[in-house]
Amino acid sequence: MLKDDKRLLDSIKEAIQEKKGSDIVIADFSKMHNVEYKYFVICQGNTAIQVEAIAREIGDYVREHSDEKPMAVSGMENAIWIAMDYGRVIVHIFQPEARAFYDLEHLWEDAKLTQIPNEY
Questions:
Q1: Total number of domains in the chain
Q2: How many CA atoms, within 13 angstroms, populate the side-chain half-sphere of residue 106?
Q3: pTM assigned to the model
Q4: Given 106, 109, 111, 118, which is the most exposed site by the fewest CB atoms within 10 A?
């Protein structure tokens, strides 16, 4: 893992934890061929308000600590599933029902999954 990737992933994880996001999973695609991104960070909040707060915290925290801004953010209007595109890292913030339905962490069997323990 490159130093910049680690700093970005750590900043995203810390921001999620700051807003009490839960069940963080990092899917590592860096060893896979023909994949445009290197990592997915997947987490959840319990309500639309919490999902939106997590996304805003990630944007602010990452800009402050890693000097990066997302290239695109999608889903803020309903906050059921917000995706933040940092190029090599895509962040997915779900409400629980949407996360269970889409089950992103199990779509790629070759990806290495790292679960981050909840802090509360």
A1: 1
A2: 5
A3: 0.93
A4: 109
